[in-house]
Write the structure tokens for this entry.
Amino acid sequence: MLHLERGYSNLISLCEKELGYSSAAAWRRVEAMKLLKDVPGVEEKILTGELNITTLFKVNQFVKQEKKEGKTVSFETKQELLNHFCNQSTREADKKLIELSPKLAPKYKEAVRQISTEESTVKFVGDKEMMALFEEAKRLGENPRESMADCFKRLAKYYIKRESKLLRKVAKPLSAPGKWQSFYPCLQHRFQMISSLTHEYPHVFLSNIGKTVVSL
């Protein structure tokens, strides 16, 4: 084997030491190579640019996940998947493979990381509905090339402005003496009158209680 001939215990070490890849990048390439043996013609598609290493790696991860669940992925299925992913983005490959095996979906946690005094990266998971709403919000914006960050900022500003107006309306005190303020003493007087009459003539005012509506 090539790595043994070069004095390395495995291919990953060879990729790291002689080709300069990071550990993660070397591991992905070695995993992707496994499909070269399984499916003839893949190497040619890589050379022509129809497929890339990342897509091969993702398909191989799908095969491994299926084996973990006791399923067998046939040669025909592997070939069909790779042919389907020709000239497609890795995002499209991700979407298809997650549909076939939901456990491949990455498990993210919400995170905020400051990268400068003025900027931070924000990471969270959005479901299908949220992404559709977000795309619609971008479409309705004035700038068709608006970035996700700018769209998020615009939506946040709009929401804060709208809610602030509603809060000011709720908290707004009654205007200076007007018809409502002048009506309060009259209303209070009527309640007192009804209470007195009910106390003095209960046989009149309480006989149909629950059936009569008293108009103030």
Summary: Confidence is low (pLDDT under 50) at residues 204-216.
